Model the fold of this input.
Amino acid sequence: MSDHGKLRPETFRPATQLVHGGTRRSQFAELSEAMFLTQGYVYDTAEAAEARFKGTDPGFIYSRFSNPTTAMFEDRIALLEGAESARATATGMAGITAALLGQVKAGDHVVAAKALFGSCRYVVEELLPRFGVASTLVDGYDLDQWRKAMRPNTKTCFLESPTNPTLDVYDIAGVAKIAHDGGATLVVDNAFASPILQRPLELGADCVVYSATKHIDGQGRVLAGVILASEEFIQTHVHNLLRQTGPSISPFNAWIMLKGLETLPVRVAAQQASAAKIADFLAEQPGVTRVIYPGRADHPQHELAKRQMKGGGTMICFEVKDSKAGAFRLSNALSIIKISNNLGDAKSIITHPATTTHQRLAPEARAEMGITDGMLRLSAGLEDVDDLIADLGNALKAV
Done:
């Protein structure tokens, strides 16, 4: 309880935090959060402007790096994540790039899991080495490979769990210990699990990054990313980089994210329930050769998923007969489920990773990650699950 006898926001349960956390009201006392579409701010005096730029006055200066609407989004998601601080970015990839680049300089080294989203592989494999930062890719589930890859100049480790698209689940606590023993940090892309189902900071990660475009918006409207960590991590590695280079989120997009957070627990719960039912259905179909879903007992890391996640998630990966041709025939025969490359959306979405999200990788790299030509990634939406099952059953006839 506070001095006034009111509950503190950090004591609220997640669903309450996501409706009320971080709210700042103007002089008009609006109920819904205000959208501050402004590039700059007015100071009463030149001395006040000087104090803002020195940092002795904590007010806003310029919306490239601080804005009231953006601050509400950052404060609210930090409450949910259990993080001391957060910084919103224009996209998820802007957030991941900043979280990694902000920690390294020429001569440093990064260790990352091989199973990454295609753009993340580009940052680790191609972008960082351009600036003299070496990188090593490992099989994320093999802790011995993480240990062996560590060097004296390793500054950070990076993984996503569950992975895109193969839904591998990695031991976040185990990798965090290896990173910390080597004097490095651990950055986790938690987009597939969402902050509702997994909290990497509690498992030892130093920084969590989201493509907020996915579950957090959850309705396919706008792009956004967010970086969450301790105040020290944000101030040391992230704040000044974002301030000076400007991968800023639009206040409008930040407002959309605030609205998305209000319904995030309800949406993820419904989508996860549908995903579990769809995965069980697909596992019984003769045209399906493999189903990958962390909530099923036949997932290779099912026990680990049960320990570090609050459910199997909203994503399903499965393989069909006749390789790419079969995957294309199934996709083209769907009526309700849409072909697109987003995920965590209210609409169910199917994607053929080998020809879309991971097409820029060499065939050998895709094979190493377990991405086959017959593999499809399905994001369960908010439609009636029986309609989705009927749609998939009908489309499987084409396979």
Q: What stands out?
A: The mean pLDDT is 95. The CA atoms of residues 274 and 386 lie 9 Å apart. The first helix runs from residue 14 to 20. Residues 264-396 form a domain with the Aspartate Aminotransferase, domain 1 fold (CATH 3.90.1150.10).
